[in-house]
Amino acid sequence: MIEIATSSTTTTLVIAGDLDLAERDQFPEIATRVVGLRRQLLVIDMCRVTFMDSTGAAFLISLADAGRKRGGATVLRGADERDLFVLEVCGALDLFRIDRDHRCESAPAPSAPASHHPG
Asked: Which residues form the STAS domain (predicted)?
């Protein structure tokens, strides 16, 4: 799931779940919306990303590249070392500013189903 929020200067993309081949159908529409908003700063919140493959990395790279071409910046917030490694292997880590100070809010733990003991 990808949500887009905006302020006067910033677009924030909040990504939850997998950012991979299975999600790629929604990438062009999201990229078009983000580029169309024309904000100088794009913040990509990855706190709730569970998995990213090269398809997801290519999506993030395309967003950062589009922003850079119009003089903007792209910040990755909450990306874990595995995600940063994928971007580094793609040779694209320098397209992003990494927010190393951000601390993700802990996602609430899923509640365990109530145990049912026949009596």
From this structure: 1-91
